[in-house]
Amino acid sequence: MSVQVLGCHARHTNDDEKWPFNYPLVKGESCHCYNYFGVICVASCASNIRNYEVLHEFGTGEVRVTCSAGNFVLGCGIKPRNPSRDFEKWRTWAVKSINSCECYDYFGATCFAVCGQII
Hints:
Blueprint: E1 4-12, E2 21-24, E3 31-34, E4 39-46, E5 49-66, E6 72-80, E7 92-97, E8 100-118
Antiparallel strand pairs: 1-4, 2-3, 5-8, 6-8, 7-8
């Protein structure tokens, strides 16, 4: 059984970064975190996940990603469309329900949901 990412967490070493983000890679093998001034990127992982999937959806404003039927959300992430161009001071990403993540970025972002069933 392989180890898979459940969630990506970032501890930013400086709050001056206007475009910090963190998200899982699509295959669930690792996380990507960004802060120009420094970041400690932590991946929460497990090997006991059935029907594992990392789903993503691009949109502007509010974007929701829902897990496949029978799966539960294990973690969420966000990747801004162009972090060097537009400053979104209200960017958010969070678990919205037991099977979905919701992200917000007025200028556009890809919202990620890590989904599966813990066995």
